[in-house]
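User: Predict the full complex structure for these chains.
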Amino acid sequence: MRSLVSFVLLLLVAVVSAISTTGNRLLVVLDDVAEKEGYSKFLGDLESRGLTLSIETPKSESLSLFHLGERAYDHVILFPTKAKGLGPSLTANILLQFLGANGNILLTLSSGSATPSALVSLLAELDIQLPADRTGLVVDHFNYDSASAPDTHDVLLLPPPGPLRSDIKDIFSAGAPADQLIAFPHGVGAALGAGELLSPILRAPRTAYSYNPKEQSEAVVDDLFAAGEQLSLVSTFQARNSARFTLVGAAELFQDKWFDAEVKKTGGKAVKTFNQEFAKRVSGWTFQEIGVLRVNWIEHHLNEVGASNESNPKIYRIKNDVTYTISLSEWSWTAWNAFSVPKNDALQLEFSMLSPFHRLPLRLNAKQSTAEQAAYTSSFKLPDQHGIFNFKVNYKRPFLTNIEEKNTVSVRHMAHDEWPRSFVISGAWPWIAGIGATVTGWLAFCALWMYSAPVGGKKESKKTQ
Amino acid sequence: MSADTLQVLASAGKGESTRTILRFIILSLIAGAAIASRLFSVIRKCPLSAGSQLLSWQSRPSRRGQLSGLLRLSAFWAALLTAASFQVSRALFTNVGSPSLSQSCARAERQSRMVADNPLVDPWFNFRATKYLVANGFYKFWDWFDDRTWHPLGRVTGGTLYPGLMVTSGAIYHALRALTIPVDIRNICVLLAPAFSGLTAFAAYLLTNEMTPSPSAGLLAAIFMGIAPGYISRSVAGSYDNEAIAIFLLVFTFFLWIRALKQGSMLWGVLCALFYGYMVASWGGYAFITCLLPLHAFVLICMGRYSTRLYVAYTTWYALGTLASMQIPFVGFLPVKTSEHMPALGIFGFLQLLAFLDYVRSAIPSRQFQTFLWLFAGGTFGLGLAALVVATSAGFIAPWSGRFYSLWDTGYAKIHIPIIASVSEHQPTAWPAFFFDLNMLIWLFPAGVYLCFQNLADEHVFIVVYALFGSYFAGVMVRLMLTLTPVVCVAAAISASSLLDTYLNVKSPNAEEHPADDNTDGKKSGKTGLKSTSKPVVGIYGWLSKGTVAGAMTVYLLLFVMHCTWVTSNAYSSPSVVLASRMPDGSQHIIDDYREAYQWLRQNTKEDAKIMSWWDYGYQIGGMADRPTLVDNNTWNNTHIATVGKAMSSREEVSYPIMRQHEVDYVLVVFGGLLGYSGDDINKFLWMVRIAEGIWPDEVKEREFFTPRGEYRVDGEATETMKNSLMYKMSYYNYNSLFPPGQAQDRVRQSRLPEVGPSLSTIEEAFTSENWIIRIYKVKDLDNFGRDHASAAAFDRGLKKKKAAKKRGPRQLRVD
Amino acid sequence: MRFSQPIASALLLAAAGVAQAASSWSFDEASLSIAAKKGADGVKEKLNAKNPLSKPVALGSTDTLKVALTAKDNGKGKRPHQAFVILKEQDSGLEAPFPLSTKDNGKAVVQISQKEIPAPLLVSTKPLKASIVIGSFGSAQAYNSQVFEVEIKTDPSAPAPQFEKPLRYGQKDEIHHIFRADPKSPPKVISLFFALAVIATVPALFIGWLSLGANLNHLAKAIGAAPLSHASFFGSIVAMEFVFFMYYTSWNLFQTLPVAGVVGAVTVLSGTKALGEVQSRRLAGER
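Assistant: Here is the predicted structure of the three-chain assembly.
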């Protein structure tokens, strides 16, 4: 029996060999190891994607994110804890260092337990505000699950979120069945700062708001923390080094009981939750399994007839015609695919010294593209200014790996023999003619001066002058 | 010779004994030269010696002539040798610690403190350029685009330098290679200046001989030229600078000009033009010639000395010389566009007019007509002048450049072009400098000029004019002491030699010789004869008087030589990269921070790390650390320098974006506070502020760097602007840690620093040299989590981020 | 009665459903007033839960907008947990909630002045849509509908409220910067004309000389006197011009200089003799 199970598991692992691009060592921090039963589906899901889980509690001595200065894990999931503090091994500083070392963090909160101060100050550094007193509850009197929370209204039901903006790929809810809803039970909402590194995945409905069950049980009068879409339920932060951090307001969202729960809005009919798929995508994104971009190669060369087209020369000349090509791939779950720029968006090339002289769209080049990688290319004429320029591709988008590629080339001035010859320039003809006239005149004068015979008194003196 | 031999010699040269030996050699040589010239004066009566061409003795059959010639020759080469060996000896003194290209001329302490204390670091660039030339050939050099300076603009080097120096040493290099003499280009560069100083002495000899028949004058001039500190300062071995060859070219061009003028020969005129072209190719100072020759011609004309000789000489020189000068890319069309060159053109036109009038006059001899013609000539000249003015104001001709104005009004630069005023050698000369640079010559000089007045031939007019303007300009700019030195040497030599001629005459003059003497002189060299011989009978009979005067003169000469040696070894021999100081016990202590820091850069930064520093150190960083710099000593782009000035003098938050935009990786500052090294950046700081203020008057204000009582302070009372400026922070960062609390002391400004030192958030200390002279900072990258550096630093220091202020005012909405 | 239980429960459920459907939040005796700072009382409107105000109300920079209402659950006043006025910017859809301070009897009031309205809403050109949301726990259905519009009147004398969109990653607009335009030549016709004019000077010069009686009669004599030197001298002059021409077309400096040197030497050597011959003729009074 057991052998059978193990065999099945083996098969599963063999079949589903998906793996993150940054490693597969996942640390799960639970208040109590026993709790993991509640998340068994979710964790199993992760394991089946090839991540190796190691489960710890904040208190355990053995817990340490770094070993000899190197990351001991590639990803961390923090589930809510009853404890006030997270202990010495999970301070805000260490977690920031972890992000700085390209580790990814999936942080879950719950209105049930106050958020540890370490996490609060971590979030503060990332410019994410939590409700005062580190606790809050999001309710919505319009979109709640009448099955499980007919009175408290604290299980929000939301349709799968669309794309954040029209020019951003929808990677969290694409292809979601229309009737399925995301259940967001007993969650904490956060308010995001204005920074560009932050972007919300799931925002509260217009009528939702967050309140403090202890103090504002009667009515929300003043110091309303946030309401409506300003209230972010699932938010992401991608650092400049593309390390990913996701804040999920409701840990229960990942629990088995919400994976296959039936929920119904008031007056609506009962539907299945989208939670399992949603949880998979959120965790997948956080652990660099989707939305990961890779630059395969960059190539630029002279684009002139007769000129040598050696790749990536160090130096060009002003007014050269140049072609620049960059090849990109996107990792989604199991493989590298050719990256396709979302519509309404553009991959742009800057040619800049101090400030960009050109900013041009890079177009897909079918010839050099394959299934694994897509080549984008652009051709243009260098500006008439010498200096040290940069080919810059600065493609940073929400939910996609930051791409900032800089190739420095020198652009030299015209060499003395590279100018158009003077007889090509029509404006120079009179001068050339002048030279010719002078030369003939001079030769003739020499001849005359030496070989001319006198013709009488006065003129000769003039001539010989 | 290779580096290590130089090293060995250097160690030898340092020894006191060698120095004394050298001194002795020099003394004996000078004495020998003087005696030899005495012997010539004995045989002055032989006609050929009057012209005193160098090798004329060969045509003399007589033993005596040969002897004299031989002696003269030996004495002359002795003089050359003196000069050359003197320079080389200096090379040895100089090479303390840096057997490679040593720096020339540490400025004497006479420079005013606040002035940018700018070491002559051009040699570094010249050396680099020469290496490039030798490696890549002439045309590559011609089209050289240097992408390691002036980042990110780059420098079209081939078109913005005077290639003469590099091409010269390149040619020498290849010539030696052709002779299968394997020599390192570096050694050529090191020894080029001394070698050319020998030639300069030669040129001075020739020039002086054009002025006076007395051959001793020439030799004296050669010797003076050889050891006058004013010239030594620029011809030290290793001072691989344009001036090294330019001074020789200057003097030699003048010689050729005089020769051409005297003989009215087109050949000499052509030669003059060629060397003028060479000069233009070598040094920006060519404008001195461009202005002096026309001036000379003009003065001659005004004296009514117009002659076909003048016409031929000048016209040939101007036509060919201008063409030659226009071949240099850097000069290009300036000779016909800028006002500096207009006098030459004007005189050229004027001469054509005169020639024409002359011709007409010769055709129609009529006095009134002549006068009318002269008026006509004057009128046209006036008209031409007016046209020039109009053209200038209309903008067809570029007005006088700022550098030129600063020659007339010493205050001008300070107000309008701080970037020029900020260079120490553009400061007005202090009086002691004259004595310091040309000790005894300074009082022989006027005497010589006076003697030139005595019989005023064309060439003497030249000396007079040259002396006049040379001394004026030398008074305006320290640097132009260099152009004064030659004429001083010539004039001084004339007077000294006339003195010696009179007093060192072995046999007393007796009455019957003199008539002969006179008339031989008369028919020999009419006007050009000079001094005692052409005067009515004058002679010194008493041995006593002879002895005293001669003795006094000898003493003076000895003193002069000793002075020169002293100045050379003390002022002009300390390479400014390596500072030498004396320990309490008198032993020499070498402070080598510069090279330490540059070595660090070379070894610890990536190949293309951009270094931001004040422009004084640009060439050094490029040469020694081999790293790209933002600005360097070639100050052609004021704005770019001002940008650096702004970055240095603004708050961190302001300068950080600038540094990011310019891709700066490291910032280098020079700080002398610990050592009392006065030439540091805090002392130059006001110039950075001024230059920046010139471009951004409303962002950088010099006033804000002074305390309300108008003091420039760095201690507790310093203004906030001062304390927050990047330069101040970088200089004093962590400086307190060296002292017991509250005891931090700046030894340059003699002031006690505040308790708490400045703190830096956008840059971090990367390197500090042994004596804290050089401090290098690394520019931080943007914060990984999108915070500003201040708060990021605060968090790292363990401060909790304070809660976002509870909503006073409207609620903050996030817009996606 | 094994089966009655489910039926009962079903009935109960139905009942509950009816009850839910019945109870719902709303408000009445609601008023909207705008009070200017300086006494002068502004607009005063009655609000209706069913249909919104027809025309927007104007809110000046010093005014305060006051909304007073009584929240009712199924007709009787009751304190709701959520009673917001929500201002919405029409283009961006940004919303700012303003909670009403409520009493137990359902009376609720809020005062809004421009100082409390976030900048992105202040700068909006269209009027802001104001909707009232009333809801609470339990089964009662919450109320939410748009009841009036506010037009922000910023005070022209005071500095206009500033709001620039924060940086968001996205595509930027393209740049095609021509740093320096290519130099232009005048029309070919003109340059041709002048070129011809210049060339025309040569014949003019020759004619002038001829009219002055220029000739080559001494050629024979000169050649006779010094054939080699004359030939080579004049030849070298021509050759020098040829060297220049080659330099202009193809040669570089290092090819040119030696050749020029050779030719120059020839010129000098032969020149002395040739010119000497010319001089001899002059001295002989033949010129």
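Residues 3 and 9 of chain C are 11 Å apart (CA to CA).
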